[in-house]
Amino acid sequence: MLSSRNRFLLLFGLFFFTTLLASHAQREIYADSIAFKDRLYYGGNFGMQFGTITLVDVSPLVGVMITERYSAGVGITYQYFNDRRFVGGSSSTYGGRIFNRFNVLPNIFIHGELETINFDYFNRAENRFQRIWSNALFLGGGYFAPFGGGRGGANFTFLYNILHDNLRSPYGEPYVIRVGFVF
């Protein structure tokens, strides 16, 4: 049974996908027509928050267009967190991911991603923090909003972690919403 918040997120996602069906031209990709370096794209996420709680997130990625509708790639993540309200309230989170993306429509895609993250986990049994690795398998989709006539644009991605564990995950919820840029 879905909670009211989860129902809202599901309905919002469906509304988002059904109302944003704009189409834009895509380059055709053939193995012998476009060089490998020209099929690469770069991007990622970057975020900052400063104050009592400081957060810096740097998550670059590189992908390759395998066909005109299918791409795959890799990325890394680094996050620095500091909560000045607590002594020793700072930590770093880092890891990597591999992803696959398939364009269902020119600007609508489905996305699958395997991520592994190392973070400070509070072990309640031992009453202390320890570093652990946590795996996530994200499935979902998104919308690509191109900028101008080039390859660059913004990605709005809605993902669900099917491996989510409330006790051993750096994410508070299985749902993740990302906004990123590619060029």
From TrEMBL:
Protein name per UniProt: Outer membrane protein beta-barrel domain-containing protein
